Amino acid sequence: MPLLQDRVALVTGAGRGIGRAIALAFAREGAKVVVTARTAKELDEVVEEIKSAGGTAIAISADLADRNVPAQVVAQVKQALGPIEILVNNAGIGSSADPRPVVDFDDAFWDLSLAVNLTAPYLLCKAVLPDMLARRFGRIITVASIAGKIGTLHGAAYSAGKHGVLGLTRTLALEVAAEGITVNAICPGPVHTMMSDRRIEYDAQRRGVSFQDQEAAQTLLGRRLEPEEIAPLAVYLAGDVAGVVTGQAYNVCGGVLMAG
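^ thats the sequence. predicted structure below, dont judge the formating
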């Protein structure tokens, strides 16, 4: 039997990259998947791929930087498919969008980064919890980053936000562990995504090296990770078999971090 048969899952930032890979992996395991992001075209492509394989999926185009939107998205999912049983907080803004040292950091970009990377996960968790508590079952998974455990040069907002979601993860895990709800985080290292491409371009130019050399130096593997290499851990954490795993922040980083 599929690991997530008929579970209702919401995956944010699911139009591409890690979110897309997780949404497709969930669907293969039988979940009814709702994907959300800002770009409708990318979401529609994910939904079409899931439906073509016989799965159930719907798309909700939304900007999670708006504080009113997370609760609205959760309400839409509940109306369409029922209460959310699995929440994956994946949507995020990376440091590559506007990398600067703190002394020159753009305050508006700080606010936007924290709104998407920290406040939106908080609001989504808050919105799904009443139904999870009533049903005494829930899986909350946040895609954080190894930047939630170490600093990021010229990426203060990103690192601060990712440190913040790990604090949220651990605190919420303490609060709901006895209620059948698990709360965990995945901390990827450098992953082959559009956002990562821009960061590598920035660092390569800053260091005066080629894109290829900068990319090869990202992990001990000599390459970046692929989004599909992150998804299996999300599937595991979303399943019944992971019911005793909570409050954890797992590194999937190609050996960049050996501890923590």
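The CA atoms of residues 118 and 161 lie 5 Å apart.
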